[in-house]
Amino acid sequence: MDLVGTFIPWIVTFGLVAVVTATFVERLIPMLPSYVLLVVIGIASAEGYFSLPAAIALSTVGSVLGCMAVYAIGTVTGESRFRNFLERLARLVGIQPVRFNLWLERLRANEYSAVASAQIVPGIRVVAPGISGLLRANFGGFVAATTIGVALWDTIFIGVGYVAKFAADDTNASVLALETVIVLLVAEALFFSFWSARAKRQASGRAVNDRERHGAKDLLLFLRAWAAHPLRIAAVSPSSSSLADLITSEITSDSSPVIELGPGTGVFTRALVARGVPEDRLVLVEAEVGFSQLLARRFPSAHVLSIDAAHFGRAKIPGSAPAGAAISGLPLLSMSPRKVIAILDGTFDRLRPHGALYQFTYGLRCPIPRWILDRLGLKAVRIGGTMANVPPASVYRITRRRARRESGADRVRAVVDFENECKLSKPPVETTPLSGTRVRMKLHS
């Protein structure tokens, strides 16, 4: 399904007015990342709906008008109240207070050059117009500098979408936009990882932390896995630390052992260890061989199972006690209902009666359909969301509606009809553990 392409008919219907409106609203309510929106505009321009110069000019007009509106709000709102709002907005898009204050001083000291450059810095470009309004910067200079920065940003992303569409004329618009954004995110992430690491070395003289040392390597490994199995990975970038903090927020050392489904490069795993979960009380279930080998090296005391999560319920883990919690980074929306049922059933069979599964999604609703929750006797509650992730994500807590003392008969009654229809077969599978793991896995029917 061409999800991104669904924007194009709307743009065709309303023409260039839609370009101005979309870019204006994006500056006020940055729910859709601007680079995705601009790539879509570039694709629409390449398909002949309007000219490339008109698309760049009018998207710039819409964005600048949005910046002017934010600037105006900053000038008429109380300084203390609006600064608190900007600081909260900055944290929402992943900007720490120290970095926010640094840009505040830059905009105060170098009014015009800093205003222009801020518009090509991800995250900062969202709050920079508000800071200028807060500082009561000269309005004419603010508009001129903002126009330069916005025009450069819009030209890059619209141009990329335009050129990429001509280079692959038959490509699905969603796939094209996704691939383009991934390439741009890689360049952005590598640049800012280098910049951040260099700044910290100069400030403290200490070696960068583990996340900085492995960030670029993890990103490249993620991209190789995505290229090989895009539907299995089903994400445009590795999960952020903000999402990791959210999905592990209700987990403590008392939750041990903890199950993690689809840990990837270990972003959530590190957060679990930071929450006090002992490494040897983690069960990591990862189907991608490259990821599972990396996990075995980074978390040598953890139980790493290199199997599909749908087989987890039949995996034998010697000495494993019922888990207090499970977290999932699996793309359930891209899986068949049969596979989702197998994953949920196997996971809840290994959880305590009141244990919970935490699942994140990029969608607006719980990724598990209501009929599956009803069939398995589960309920889902949204515990929060984060904008400081690409794309923005939400987390749901999945629990039993009532504790089950035994799962066998209940499970059979719950899914037997569905399995008969799908003619589900369970052939014996035997796997060998990875080097560095502490378990030997045998899957049985």
Outline the structure in words.
The protein is α/β, with parallel strands linked by helices. The protein has helices spanning 7-14, 16-28, 34-46, 52-76, 79-92, 97-109, 111-118, 124-134, 139-167, 173-204, 210-228, 230-233, 241-247, 267-274, 289-298, 337-349, 370-376, 408-422, and strands spanning 258-261, 282-285, 303-305, 323-328, 351-361, 378-386, 393-400, 429-430, 442-443. Helix 6 (97-109) crosses helix 8 (124-134). The model is unreliable at 205-213, 421-433 and 435-445 (pLDDT under 50). The protein has three domains: 4-167, no CATH class; 182-233; 241-443, Rossmann fold (3-Layer(aba) Sandwich), CATH 3.40.50. The longest helix has 32 residues, at 173-204.
Topology diagram in text:
Elements: H1 7-14, H2 16-28, H3 34-46, H4 52-76, H5 79-92, H6 97-109, H7 111-118, H8 124-134, H9 139-167, H10 173-204, H11 210-228, H12 230-233, H13 241-247, E1 258-261, H14 267-274, E2 282-285, H15 289-298, E3 303-305, E4 323-328, H16 337-349, E5 351-361, H17 370-376, E6 378-386, E7 393-400, H18 408-422, E8 429-430, E9 442-443
Proportion of beta-strand residues: 5-15%
- What is the mean pLDDT? 75
SSE string, helix = H, strand = E? HHHHHHHHHHHHHEHEHEEHEHEEHEE
Strand order of the largest sheet: 3-2-1-4-5-7-6
Q: Please tally the β strands and state the result.
A: 9
CATH topology assignment of the largest domain? Rossmann fold
How widely separated are the two ends?
Answer: 35 Å
User: What's the tally of helices?
Assistant: 18
Secondary-structure-based class equals: alpha/beta
Second-tier CATH architecture of the largest domain: 3-Layer(aba) Sandwich
In one word, what is the shape? elongated
Give the domain tally.
3
Low-confidence stretches: 205-213, 421-433, 435-445
Task: Report the CATH superfamily of the largest domain.
Answer: Vaccinia Virus protein VP39
Question: Briefly, what CATH class of the largest domain?
Answer: Alpha Beta
The major β-sheet equals: 7 strands, mixed
Share of residues in helices:
55-70%
The whole-angstrom Rg is 24 Å
